[in-house]
Write a structure and sequence with these properties.
binds adenosine-5'-triphosphate, binds fe (iii) ion, tRNA N(6)-L-threonylcarbamoyladenine synthase activity, metal ion binding
Protein backbone atom coordinates (compact mmCIF):
# COMPACT_ATOMS: atom_id res chain seq x y z
CA UNK A 1 0.00 0.00 0.00
CA UNK A 2 1.37 3.40 -0.99
CA UNK A 3 -0.32 6.48 0.52
CA UNK A 4 0.05 10.15 -0.40
CA UNK A 5 -0.61 12.40 2.61
CA UNK A 6 -1.48 16.09 2.31
CA UNK A 7 -1.55 18.60 5.19
CA UNK A 8 -2.64 22.26 4.96
CA UNK A 9 -4.56 22.82 8.21
CA UNK A 10 -2.41 25.65 9.51
CA UNK A 11 0.67 27.43 8.20
CA UNK A 12 2.68 24.61 6.65
CA UNK A 13 2.00 23.07 3.27
CA UNK A 14 3.17 19.49 3.56
CA UNK A 15 3.01 16.28 1.55
CA UNK A 16 4.58 12.85 1.95
CA UNK A 17 4.48 9.38 0.48
CA UNK A 18 4.47 6.52 2.98
CA UNK A 19 4.23 2.77 2.52
CA UNK A 20 2.09 0.54 4.76
CA UNK A 21 5.21 -1.20 6.11
CA UNK A 22 6.15 2.18 7.61
CA UNK A 23 8.75 3.13 5.00
CA UNK A 24 8.76 6.90 4.41
CA UNK A 25 9.37 7.35 0.68
CA UNK A 26 9.39 11.13 0.74
CA UNK A 27 8.40 14.15 2.81
CA UNK A 28 8.22 17.76 1.70
CA UNK A 29 7.29 20.88 3.68
CA UNK A 30 6.92 24.45 2.58
CA UNK A 31 6.58 26.69 5.60
CA UNK A 32 5.23 30.20 5.89
CA UNK A 33 7.82 31.33 8.39
CA UNK A 34 8.28 34.69 6.68
CA UNK A 35 4.58 35.46 6.86
CA UNK A 36 4.51 34.44 10.53
CA UNK A 37 7.34 36.81 11.35
CA UNK A 38 5.70 39.63 9.44
CA UNK A 39 2.15 39.29 10.76
CA UNK A 40 2.89 37.82 14.18
CA UNK A 41 0.59 34.91 13.65
CA UNK A 42 -1.40 33.05 11.05
CA UNK A 43 -3.64 35.37 9.03
CA UNK A 44 -6.13 32.99 7.38
CA UNK A 45 -6.38 34.80 4.03
CA UNK A 46 -2.59 35.09 3.68
CA UNK A 47 -2.13 31.50 4.73
CA UNK A 48 -4.68 30.33 2.18
CA UNK A 49 -2.87 32.18 -0.59
CA UNK A 50 0.47 30.75 0.46
CA UNK A 51 -0.96 27.22 0.49
CA UNK A 52 -2.55 27.74 -2.92
CA UNK A 53 0.79 28.91 -4.32
CA UNK A 54 2.75 26.03 -2.77
CA UNK A 55 0.46 23.01 -2.98
CA UNK A 56 1.08 21.80 -6.55
CA UNK A 57 4.84 22.06 -6.19
CA UNK A 58 4.92 20.39 -2.78
CA UNK A 59 2.85 17.41 -3.93
CA UNK A 60 4.84 17.06 -7.15
CA UNK A 61 8.08 17.18 -5.19
CA UNK A 62 6.82 14.48 -2.82
CA UNK A 63 5.98 12.22 -5.77
CA UNK A 64 9.30 12.98 -7.51
CA UNK A 65 11.35 12.33 -4.39
CA UNK A 66 9.54 9.00 -3.93
CA UNK A 67 10.25 8.29 -7.64
CA UNK A 68 6.56 7.66 -8.22
CA UNK A 69 3.67 9.05 -10.20
CA UNK A 70 0.02 9.27 -9.17
CA UNK A 71 -0.58 5.92 -10.91
CA UNK A 72 1.55 4.13 -8.30
CA UNK A 73 -0.54 5.39 -5.38
CA UNK A 74 -3.08 3.20 -3.56
CA UNK A 75 -5.01 6.09 -2.03
CA UNK A 76 -4.78 9.73 -0.90
CA UNK A 77 -5.08 10.93 2.71
CA UNK A 78 -5.77 14.55 3.57
CA UNK A 79 -6.37 16.58 6.73
CA UNK A 80 -10.03 17.65 6.86
CA UNK A 81 -9.82 19.23 10.35
CA UNK A 82 -9.43 20.71 12.82
CA UNK A 83 -7.88 23.87 11.41
CA UNK A 84 -8.58 26.96 9.36
CA UNK A 85 -11.27 26.10 6.82
CA UNK A 86 -9.78 28.34 4.11
CA UNK A 87 -6.50 26.46 4.48
CA UNK A 88 -7.99 22.97 4.83
CA UNK A 89 -9.89 23.61 1.60
CA UNK A 90 -6.69 23.99 -0.43
CA UNK A 91 -5.40 20.58 0.64
CA UNK A 92 -8.74 18.82 0.31
CA UNK A 93 -9.29 20.24 -3.16
CA UNK A 94 -5.85 19.07 -4.28
CA UNK A 95 -6.36 15.61 -2.77
CA UNK A 96 -9.75 15.21 -4.44
CA UNK A 97 -8.48 16.39 -7.82
CA UNK A 98 -5.77 13.71 -7.75
CA UNK A 99 -8.12 11.06 -6.38
CA UNK A 100 -10.77 11.94 -8.94
CA UNK A 101 -8.42 11.92 -11.89
CA UNK A 102 -6.63 8.69 -10.97
CA UNK A 103 -9.62 6.88 -9.42
CA UNK A 104 -8.09 6.62 -5.95
CA UNK A 105 -9.92 6.15 -2.64
CA UNK A 106 -9.60 9.07 -0.26
CA UNK A 107 -9.20 9.16 3.53
CA UNK A 108 -10.18 12.27 5.52
CA UNK A 109 -7.79 12.62 8.46
CA UNK A 110 -8.06 14.28 11.88
CA UNK A 111 -4.92 16.39 12.33
CA UNK A 112 -4.55 15.65 16.07
CA UNK A 113 -5.19 11.94 15.63
CA UNK A 114 -2.35 12.01 13.12
CA UNK A 115 -0.02 13.71 15.64
CA UNK A 116 -0.75 10.79 17.99
CA UNK A 117 -0.69 7.89 15.53
CA UNK A 118 2.61 8.83 13.91
CA UNK A 119 4.17 7.41 17.09
CA UNK A 120 3.03 3.98 15.86
CA UNK A 121 4.96 4.43 12.63
CA UNK A 122 8.05 5.41 14.58
CA UNK A 123 7.76 2.64 17.17
CA UNK A 124 5.87 -0.47 16.12
CA UNK A 125 5.57 -1.57 19.74
CA UNK A 126 3.06 1.19 20.51
CA UNK A 127 -0.18 -0.81 20.58
CA UNK A 128 -3.61 0.36 21.69
CA UNK A 129 -4.53 1.32 24.32
CA UNK A 130 -2.03 4.11 25.00
CA UNK A 131 -1.97 7.57 26.55
CA UNK A 132 -1.10 10.61 24.43
CA UNK A 133 -0.15 14.18 25.29
CA UNK A 134 -0.54 16.33 22.18
CA UNK A 135 1.07 19.74 22.52
CA UNK A 136 1.25 22.32 19.75
CA UNK A 137 0.42 25.91 18.91
CA UNK A 138 -3.32 25.38 18.87
CA UNK A 139 -3.92 22.29 20.97
CA UNK A 140 -3.10 20.91 24.39
CA UNK A 141 -4.73 17.49 24.72
CA UNK A 142 -4.46 14.49 26.97
CA UNK A 143 -5.98 11.55 25.15
CA UNK A 144 -6.61 7.96 26.08
CA UNK A 145 -6.47 6.06 22.78
CA UNK A 146 -8.55 2.90 23.22
CA UNK A 147 -8.40 1.71 19.62
CA UNK A 148 -8.20 3.18 16.13
CA UNK A 149 -10.79 5.95 15.93
CA UNK A 150 -11.88 5.53 19.55
CA UNK A 151 -10.42 8.20 21.82
CA UNK A 152 -11.34 9.66 25.17
CA UNK A 153 -10.27 13.20 25.99
CA UNK A 154 -8.96 13.33 29.54
CA UNK A 155 -7.97 16.98 29.33
CA UNK A 156 -7.68 20.01 27.09
CA UNK A 157 -6.78 23.67 27.50
CA UNK A 158 -9.36 26.06 28.88
CA UNK A 159 -7.63 28.94 27.06
CA UNK A 160 -4.27 28.84 25.24
CA UNK A 161 -2.04 25.94 24.24
CA UNK A 162 1.54 25.69 25.46
CA UNK A 163 2.98 26.38 21.96
CA UNK A 164 1.11 29.69 21.87
CA UNK A 165 2.69 30.61 25.24
CA UNK A 166 6.15 29.71 23.90
CA UNK A 167 5.57 31.77 20.76
CA UNK A 168 4.31 34.85 22.63
CA UNK A 169 7.09 34.69 25.21
CA UNK A 170 9.68 34.32 22.48
CA UNK A 171 8.28 37.33 20.63
CA UNK A 172 8.26 39.47 23.80
CA UNK A 173 11.85 38.48 24.50
CA UNK A 174 12.87 39.70 21.06
CA UNK A 175 13.90 36.26 19.80
CA UNK A 176 14.39 35.32 16.19
CA UNK A 177 10.96 34.03 15.14
CA UNK A 178 12.02 32.64 11.79
CA UNK A 179 12.36 29.10 13.06
CA UNK A 180 9.28 29.50 15.25
CA UNK A 181 9.37 30.88 18.77
CA UNK A 182 9.66 27.52 20.50
CA UNK A 183 13.11 26.43 19.30
CA UNK A 184 14.59 29.91 19.87
CA UNK A 185 13.24 30.06 23.42
CA UNK A 186 14.45 26.55 24.21
CA UNK A 187 17.95 27.57 23.13
CA UNK A 188 18.04 30.80 25.12
CA UNK A 189 16.66 29.06 28.22
CA UNK A 190 19.86 26.99 28.38
CA UNK A 191 21.74 30.16 29.37
CA UNK A 192 19.29 31.16 32.11
CA UNK A 193 18.51 30.31 35.72
CA UNK A 194 15.11 28.55 35.80
CA UNK A 195 14.47 29.54 39.42
CA UNK A 196 15.30 33.24 39.07
CA UNK A 197 11.80 34.47 38.24
CA UNK A 198 8.96 33.11 40.35
CA UNK A 199 5.96 32.14 38.25
CA UNK A 200 3.07 30.20 39.72
CA UNK A 201 2.06 26.86 38.25
CA UNK A 202 -1.39 27.07 36.63
CA UNK A 203 -4.52 25.31 37.88
CA UNK A 204 -3.11 23.57 40.91
CA UNK A 205 -6.42 23.97 42.73
CA UNK A 206 -8.24 22.12 39.92
CA UNK A 207 -7.81 18.40 40.45
CA UNK A 208 -8.36 17.49 36.80
CA UNK A 209 -6.33 17.05 33.61
CA UNK A 210 -7.11 20.37 31.95
CA UNK A 211 -4.55 23.02 31.08
CA UNK A 212 -4.33 26.78 31.15
CA UNK A 213 -1.56 28.93 29.68
CA UNK A 214 -3.20 32.36 29.42
CA UNK A 215 -2.39 33.21 33.04
CA UNK A 216 1.25 32.21 32.66
CA UNK A 217 1.48 34.40 29.57
CA UNK A 218 0.21 37.33 31.62
CA UNK A 219 2.72 36.56 34.38
CA UNK A 220 5.53 36.65 31.80
CA UNK A 221 4.28 39.93 30.35
CA UNK A 222 4.14 41.51 33.82
CA UNK A 223 7.61 40.24 34.69
CA UNK A 224 9.02 41.76 31.50
CA UNK A 225 7.33 45.07 32.25
CA UNK A 226 8.42 45.16 35.88
CA UNK A 227 12.04 44.56 34.86
CA UNK A 228 11.78 47.31 32.24
CA UNK A 229 13.37 45.11 29.65
CA UNK A 230 13.46 46.84 26.25
CA UNK A 231 12.68 43.47 24.73
CA UNK A 232 10.21 43.14 21.88
CA UNK A 233 11.65 46.02 19.86
CA UNK A 234 15.27 45.20 20.58
CA UNK A 235 16.26 41.91 18.98
CA UNK A 236 18.23 39.60 21.24
CA UNK A 237 21.13 39.80 18.79
CA UNK A 238 21.71 43.45 19.75
CA UNK A 239 21.09 43.06 23.50
CA UNK A 240 23.84 43.86 26.01
CA UNK A 241 25.17 40.89 27.96
CA UNK A 242 23.25 41.91 31.13
CA UNK A 243 20.09 42.30 29.10
CA UNK A 244 20.65 38.95 27.42
CA UNK A 245 21.14 37.36 30.81
CA UNK A 246 17.80 38.76 32.11
CA UNK A 247 16.01 37.51 29.05
CA UNK A 248 17.56 34.08 29.41
CA UNK A 249 16.47 33.95 33.05
CA UNK A 250 12.92 34.80 32.03
CA UNK A 251 12.99 32.18 29.26
CA UNK A 252 14.29 29.48 31.58
CA UNK A 253 11.84 30.38 34.35
CA UNK A 254 8.92 30.40 31.92
CA UNK A 255 9.93 27.08 30.45
CA UNK A 256 10.31 25.43 33.84
CA UNK A 257 6.78 26.36 34.96
CA UNK A 258 5.18 25.74 31.55
CA UNK A 259 6.59 22.21 31.57
CA UNK A 260 5.89 21.63 35.27
CA UNK A 261 2.22 22.20 34.39
CA UNK A 262 2.51 19.46 31.73
CA UNK A 263 4.19 17.14 34.22
CA UNK A 264 1.51 17.60 36.86
CA UNK A 265 -1.35 17.03 34.44
CA UNK A 266 0.37 13.99 32.91
CA UNK A 267 0.89 12.50 36.34
CA UNK A 268 -2.83 12.71 37.06
CA UNK A 269 -3.77 11.52 33.56
CA UNK A 270 -1.63 8.42 34.05
CA UNK A 271 -3.40 7.66 37.30
CA UNK A 272 -6.79 8.08 35.61
CA UNK A 273 -5.79 6.16 32.49
CA UNK A 274 -4.27 3.22 34.36
CA UNK A 275 -7.50 2.84 36.29
CA UNK A 276 -9.53 2.71 33.07
CA UNK A 277 -7.03 0.66 31.06
CA UNK A 278 -4.46 -1.06 33.30
CA UNK A 279 -2.69 -2.51 30.24
CA UNK A 280 -1.38 0.89 29.07
CA UNK A 281 2.39 0.80 28.51
CA UNK A 282 3.17 3.94 26.53
CA UNK A 283 2.93 7.68 26.93
CA UNK A 284 3.07 9.23 23.46
CA UNK A 285 4.08 12.89 23.38
CA UNK A 286 3.70 14.59 20.02
CA UNK A 287 2.86 17.93 18.37
CA UNK A 288 5.33 20.75 17.74
CA UNK A 289 6.25 21.35 21.39
CA UNK A 290 7.22 17.67 21.77
CA UNK A 291 10.34 18.43 19.74
CA UNK A 292 11.64 20.33 22.79
CA UNK A 293 14.43 18.42 24.61
CA UNK A 294 13.57 19.80 28.04
CA UNK A 295 9.94 18.75 27.59
CA UNK A 296 11.04 15.27 26.52
CA UNK A 297 13.42 14.81 29.44
CA UNK A 298 10.89 15.89 32.06
CA UNK A 299 8.06 13.80 30.65
CA UNK A 300 10.39 10.83 30.35
CA UNK A 301 10.86 11.00 34.12
CA UNK A 302 7.12 11.26 34.79
CA UNK A 303 6.39 8.30 32.50
CA UNK A 304 9.16 6.24 34.09
CA UNK A 305 7.92 6.90 37.62
CA UNK A 306 4.56 5.44 36.56
CA UNK A 307 5.99 2.42 34.80
CA UNK A 308 5.26 3.74 31.31
CA UNK A 309 7.61 4.19 28.39
CA UNK A 310 7.79 7.60 26.71
CA UNK A 311 7.54 7.64 22.91
CA UNK A 312 8.32 10.93 21.16
CA UNK A 313 8.55 11.02 17.37
CA UNK A 314 11.70 12.70 16.02
CA UNK A 315 11.29 16.50 15.86
CA UNK A 316 10.44 16.69 12.17
CA UNK A 317 7.54 14.26 12.76
CA UNK A 318 6.40 16.18 15.87
CA UNK A 319 5.79 19.45 14.05
CA UNK A 320 3.19 19.50 11.29
CA UNK A 321 4.11 17.15 8.44
CA UNK A 322 2.62 15.05 5.67
CA UNK A 323 4.01 11.74 6.95
CA UNK A 324 1.63 11.61 9.91
CA UNK A 325 -1.31 12.25 7.59
CA UNK A 326 -0.27 9.52 5.16
CA UNK A 327 0.34 7.09 8.04
CA UNK A 328 -3.04 7.80 9.66
CA UNK A 329 -4.60 7.35 6.23
CA UNK A 330 -2.93 3.93 6.02
CA UNK A 331 -4.21 2.88 9.43
CA UNK A 332 -7.79 3.81 8.53
CA UNK A 333 -7.57 2.42 5.01
CA UNK A 334 -6.44 -0.94 6.35
CA UNK A 335 -9.56 -1.00 8.56
CA UNK A 336 -11.75 -0.31 5.53
CA UNK A 337 -12.40 3.30 6.49
CA UNK A 338 -12.12 5.39 3.34
CA UNK A 339 -14.29 7.16 0.77
CA UNK A 340 -14.65 6.04 -2.84
CA UNK A 341 -12.86 8.11 -5.50
CA UNK A 342 -14.61 11.44 -6.03
CA UNK A 343 -15.96 12.19 -9.51
CA UNK A 344 -13.36 13.76 -11.81
CA UNK A 345 -13.72 17.50 -12.39
CA UNK A 346 -15.60 18.52 -9.28
CA UNK A 347 -16.76 22.13 -9.64
CA UNK A 348 -14.66 24.90 -8.11
CA UNK A 349 -17.38 25.80 -5.58
CA UNK A 350 -17.95 22.20 -4.38
CA UNK A 351 -18.96 21.95 -0.71
CA UNK A 352 -16.21 19.80 0.76
CA UNK A 353 -16.54 18.02 4.09
CA UNK A 354 -14.28 20.29 6.17
CA UNK A 355 -14.28 20.16 9.96
CA UNK A 356 -12.58 23.29 11.37
CA UNK A 357 -13.72 22.34 14.89
CA UNK A 358 -13.62 18.61 15.41
CA UNK A 359 -13.20 17.07 18.86
CA UNK A 360 -11.04 13.95 18.81
CA UNK A 361 -13.12 12.06 21.34
CA UNK A 362 -15.62 12.22 24.13
CA UNK A 363 -14.68 14.19 27.23
CA UNK A 364 -13.96 12.29 30.40
CA UNK A 365 -13.69 13.58 33.91
CA UNK A 366 -13.00 11.32 36.85
CA UNK A 367 -14.99 13.47 39.24
CA UNK A 368 -18.04 13.25 37.02
CA UNK A 369 -17.85 9.54 36.39
CA UNK A 370 -17.39 8.80 40.08
CA UNK A 371 -20.42 10.92 40.94
CA UNK A 372 -22.58 8.83 38.63
P1 LIG B 1 -1.95 22.36 15.68
O1 LIG B 1 -2.09 23.10 16.94
O2 LIG B 1 -3.14 22.48 14.78
O3 LIG B 1 -1.53 20.95 15.89
P2 LIG B 1 0.37 23.92 14.94
O4 LIG B 1 0.18 24.89 13.89
O5 LIG B 1 0.53 24.40 16.32
O6 LIG B 1 -0.76 22.88 14.79
P3 LIG B 1 2.70 22.21 15.13
O7 LIG B 1 3.78 22.16 14.11
O8 LIG B 1 2.08 20.95 15.56
O9 LIG B 1 1.66 23.18 14.49
O10 LIG B 1 3.26 22.98 16.41
C1 LIG B 1 3.88 24.23 16.30
C2 LIG B 1 4.11 24.78 17.69
O11 LIG B 1 5.19 24.03 18.31
C3 LIG B 1 4.54 26.24 17.73
O12 LIG B 1 3.82 26.89 18.74
C4 LIG B 1 6.03 26.17 18.06
O13 LIG B 1 6.52 27.28 18.76
C5 LIG B 1 6.08 24.94 18.92
N1 LIG B 1 7.43 24.38 18.96
C6 LIG B 1 8.16 23.88 17.95
N2 LIG B 1 9.39 23.52 18.36
C7 LIG B 1 9.45 23.80 19.68
C8 LIG B 1 10.45 23.68 20.70
N3 LIG B 1 11.67 23.20 20.42
N4 LIG B 1 10.14 24.08 21.95
C9 LIG B 1 8.92 24.57 22.24
N5 LIG B 1 7.95 24.73 21.33
C10 LIG B 1 8.20 24.35 20.06
FE1 LIG C 1 -0.14 20.35 14.41
Amino acid sequence: LVMLGIETSCDDTAAAVVRSDGQILSQVISSQADLLVKYGGVAPKMAEEAHALAIDGVVQQALDNAKLTEENLSAVAVTIGPGLSLCLRVGVQKARRIAGKFRLPIVGVHHMEAHALVARLVNKKVQFPFLALLISGGHNLLILAHSLGHYVQLGTTIDDAIGEAYDKTARWLGLDMRRGGGPALEELALEGDPTSVKFSVPMRQHKDCNFSYAGLKTQVRLAIESQNLPTENVPISSASSDDRRSRADLAASFQRVAVLHLEERCQRAMEWALKIEPSIKYLVVSGGVASNSFVRARLNDVAGRNGLELVCPPPRLCTDNGVMIAWTGIEHYLMGRFDPPPPPNEPENFQYDLRPRWPLGEEYSEGRSVAR
